[in-house]
Structure formats: structure tokens, C-alpha cells
Design goal:
- Strand 4, helix 4 and strand 5 form a beta-alpha-beta unit.
- Strands 11-10-9-8-12-6-13-16-15 form a 9-stranded mixed sheet. Strands 2-1-3-4-5 form a 5-stranded mixed sheet, with helices on both faces. Strands 7-14 form a two-stranded antiparallel sheet.
- The protein is elongated.
- The protein is built from 11 helices and 16 strands.
- By secondary structure, the chain is α/β, with parallel strands linked by helices.
- The protein has 2 domains: 134 residues, 3-Layer(aba) Sandwich (Cytidine Deaminase, domain 2), CATH 3.40.140.10; 222 residues, Dihydrofolate Reductase, subunit A, CATH 3.40.430.
- The two termini are 33 Å apart.
Length: 367
């Protein structure tokens, strides 16, 4: 029971890196000696010290003979930082409790061997599912090459996302739109389409002023990371005049061909063989995985959303439901052509339901 309490604390610390560690995982560490926490830390930013180093620095000489609780297997290789495994051995800790084995083949299981070889007691598996949950994108990319994909939609009570004339601002409430900022801040990239850009001319940025107070505790305004804006633009319809082009952070235009426009340095035209048609969605996500993108948030219209669902590429579906009825002439939540059998429809299960302002937020996962 005591081990669970300290590991739960380490997991809480790990979550504080969810806006800034990508492509690295979120990791927390707690060091305990004689029943007291003598040091703790979390991985705060890629390229900077890992959680174990922060905790060891905080504990100083008290780390000797201690028990270390860490949410992910310590690294054992030189990357942007030295190996945490070596630091734990050098500190002469007595025991290391690890929640989950690192899926990275450079690390996976090797640290267990090195720590045990140094005479340190090692156990792992405690609260493993919780550790994997806060690093779903990292685990999925390491195991499959694909990022974790969240699809966000806003709808009326009758499952409509816009009027027949395309008007969609604003179906959901301001509270719901501010809530979305948290999901954007967590994401390595936001995917949208040229149709959405032409219709709404959105910013697709994380805005500090719109983050909830409890989310601001995770980060600060200066270190807030903007996700890459990935726009599916097969016919080169996005121009330098659209708002996303002048926003901080990178914009990737996924196209079949380059154009002759003069683009700022933060805009990259990426050519996807065969274009970004429905049949190439898997290749598009694989491309993002190769660029170490762990978590993706999709904010797009009914056609693209339906294509992702139809291709079984959605890991998590987030729907904000507003207390409005738009009627049968309006645009539906997503387009799924060719389904005429109830046994063939995509099936989801609810993982969370909660009220956000005047709206209801539904979180679902595929069955």
C-alpha cells in the first residue's frame, strides 16, 4: 500500500510535463528514505534533465540507501542527456520501483539488468496501466509507428455540426472552446483540412489566455509549446493570406505538388505520394510518426472525420454536445458513405461523460 502511495505521487508529477516533453514521454520520480520523501521531480522539457536527475539533485546525499519510484524504466543510453540508470547506480540507491517498461527498443528491459547487476533491487508493473495512460501517444508510436489520434467534434443535440449554408460559429459554448485548448496543448500536432481553413480561417493555436487556471499550473506562458498545424491540402487551396500562416509554430501543408507561392520559414510543403486522399490516411499518420509526433488532435469537418472513422484510425473520440437542435437540413456529424447494415457501423464505448459549461463533453474509444 505504501508503494502505491509513492507511485501515485510520481504519476501526478509526470502529468506536469504533458505540455512540454514531446517527443519524450511524461515521467515522474519520487525518492523515499526512512519513510520520508527526500527528493522528487519530473521530466519538464525535451533536451533537459529527466525526472530521475531532478529527484536525485533534490535529494543529494540522502539518495544513498533510498527507494526510488519512477513511472517509466530509466534510460540507459546517451541521448540528449546522460543515462539515468548510471546516475541511480552512482547514487547507491537501494531499490527501484518502476511502473512500466520503456517500449523504446534502445531501452526496453536493459535498465532492469544493469540495475540488478549493480546490486539494486528492482520491481516493475506497479500502476503500469496508469503510466501507459499518460503516455499513450509515446507507447503507440514506439509500438506501431503511428501517433495516438484524438478526433474532436462539436455538435448539436441532433448530431449536426453546421447549418446547411456552412455556418457553424458558434454551436458550442465558450467554455467548451476553452476546454479544447487543453487538448491542443497536449498535442504534438493538430490536423485539419483546406476545407476547414477556407470555411473558418481558424488560428489552430494554443492560447494561454483561454487555458483554464488548473491547466496553467502545468506550464507557463513563456514555455508554452505550439503544436504543428498539419493541413491536408491536396489541391493547394491554402494561401499565405490565411491566418494559420502567420501564427507562431510550424504549419505543414500536405500536398500532391509544390506551388509557386513565397512562404515564410515556418511553413513546410510536404509531398505525400499519391496525395492526401482517403486511401493514403494511414501513410500520412505514418509520416507524422517518423517525425516523432506522439499525439494528434484532429479538428476538421464531416468528410475528413468520417474518413478517419471509416479507416479505423481514431483512438479517441471527443464530442462537445450543445443544447441546440439544428434540424435535418443541417450538416451531419460525420459522413460515412456506403453503410447500410447496422452490424457494419463503427462502434464506440463511453470512457468519460462530463458537463463543460452549458455543454456535455463525451469521450469515447473504439470497441
Amino acid at each position: 500500500m505504501i508503494d502505491e502511495q509513492y507511485m501515485a505521487r510520481a504519476l501526478k508529477l509526470a502529468e506536469r510535463g504533458c505540455f512540454s516533453t514531446t517527443p519524450n514521454p511524461n515521467v515522474g520520480c519520487v525518492i523515499v528514505r526512512d519513510g520520508n520523501i527526500v527528493g522528487e521531480g519530473w521530466h519538464q522539457k525535451t533536451g533537459e534533465d529527466h525526472a530521475e536527475i531532478h529527484a536525485l539533485n533534490a535529494s543529494g546525499n540522502k539518495a544513498k540507501g533510498s527507494t526510488v519510484y519512477v513511472t517509466l524504466e530509466p534510460c540507459n543510453h546517451h541521448g540528449l542527456t546522460p543515462p539515468c540508470c548510471d546516475a541511480l547506480i552512482e547514487a547507491r540507491v537501494n531499490r527501484v520501483v518502476i511502473a512500466a517498461q520503456d517500449p523504446n527498443p534502445k531501452v526496453s528491459g536493459k535498465s532492469f539488468y544493469l540495475l540488478k547487476k549493480a546490486g539494486i533491487k528492482v520491481s516493475h508493473g506497479l500502476m503500469m496501466n496508469e503510466s501507459k495512460r499518460i503516455n499513450r501517444g509515446f507507447f503507440k508510436r514506439m509500438c506501431t509507428g503511428l501517433p495516438w489520434l484524438k478526433l474532436k467534434l462539436g455538435s448539436s443535440l441532433d448530431g449536426r455540426i453546421a447549418m446547411n449554408n456552412g455556418q457553424s460559429r458558434w454551436i458550442t459554448s465558450k467554455s467548451a472552446r476553452h476546454d479544447v485548448q487543453y487538448y491542443r496543448a497536449q498535442s504534438s500536432a493538430i490536423i485539419s483540412t483546406s476545407a476547414t481553413i477556407l470555411a473558418d480561417d481558424p488560428l489552430l493555436t494554443v492560447r494561454w489566455s483561454e487555458l483554464k487556471k488548473e491547466n496553467k499550473f502545468i506550464s507557463n506562458k513563456e514555455s508554452l509549446r505550439q503544436p504543428i498545424r498539419v493541413i491536408m491540402d491536396r489541391k493547394n487551396k491554402v494561401t499565405p493570406q490565411h491566418q494559420i500562416i502567420t501564427q507562431p509554430g510550424e504549419t505543414w501543408l500536405i500536398r500532391q505538388n509544390y506551388d509557386d507561392n513565397i512562404w515564410p520559414d515556418n511553413v513546410i510543403q510536404m509531398i505525400l505520394p499519391g496525395g492526401c486522399q482517403k486511401k493514403n490516411l494511414f501513410q500520412m499518420l505514418l509520416l507524422l510518426g517518423k517525425y516523432q509526433i506522439n499525439d494528434v488532435l484532429v479538428e476538421a469537418g464531416a468528410t475528413f472525420s468520417g474518413a478517419l472513422i471509416e479507416a479505423n484510425l481514431v483512438d479517441e473520440l471527443i464530442i462537445y454536445v450543445a443544447p441546440k437542435i439544428l434540424g435535418h437540413d443541417s450538416i451531419c456529424l460525420c459522413k460515412l458513405p456506403g453503410i447500410n447494415n447496422l452490424n457494419s457501423v463503427p462502434n464506440f464505448s463511453f470512457s468519460d461523460i462530463r458537463k463543460v459549461g452549458s455543454n456535455i463533453r463525451l469521450t469515447l474509444i473504439p470497441k
